[in-house]
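hey so u asked for the seq, here:
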Amino acid sequence: MHVTPHKLTVGKVADLKHSCVLIDDSGTPGQTAGSSYLDPSRKTWVAVITTPQQMHEIADEIGGALEELESQTGASEFHFTEIYRGAGAFKDAPLPLRQALFAFMRHIFELYMFPVLVQTFSESDLTDMHARAGFPPKVGVFDLHQPPDASLLFLLLQVRRFLAAHASEYPAPAYVVLDEGFRPADRAIEIPSFRQHFHRSSIFTARSSEFRALQLADFAAFCVSRTQWLLTKDKRSKVDEEFMEIMAGLRLNILNLPEVSIDRQSWTPQDYERIIDEDRIQKGLSPRANNG
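ran it, structure tokens below
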């Protein structure tokens, strides 16, 4: 398994008419949430999968969207954590404008219905995993005792299965592009066993400011993480509620998480744990939230 320099552009991927998998991470390391399932050590990776035609359209359209964003806010890219908080480049952006940015991206996801895959591991999850099965400590560049590495590898395995099962609509080999952080930008990380489904048998790292389609993954990752966080809070602020109203209308096409309709007025953190426990049982795992 090799890591080599490789600079990738949206235009190149679009022109070559490849499927593309856009990956970003989320999580709140070190922060304590209102549920044991949102462990401070957890790491979540989210993959947004596009057809060749969708990638071509995104490459054409995203430049104009970002030009409009810059004219409205001065920001050169969407950073949904900053948009939500009114921080960074969005410090002076009024709340209605920030809400409109979320509504705009929600429209994109509703229009294209991108398949989305999510994978999360915490330290306790990895302890359970290694106790149940004889996983090696490392697989290539992935340290299976570290939540960021393990959750990314298992997400890639899910992506590979999806591409194999939907080859007519999402032809392989797909470009798999990861926002920088796991490794510096402009790298190709070879994974030999993925040769049939990943272009050059690799995942590619890039900066979202340059490979702008990655901002789709940033949005999906933020929405997954923030929604989970808000659903485990005993009390939500007025701003929380206003953003939840926007996200409530979002239909992320998440393939491996349950879709649940809720009444936000009566919802409690215990309801969240019950839903996750039911999902774990359905997947053959033991419920954990009430086990200490």
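Residues 3-282 form one domain. Residues 52-73 form the longest helix (22 residues).
lmk if thats what u needed
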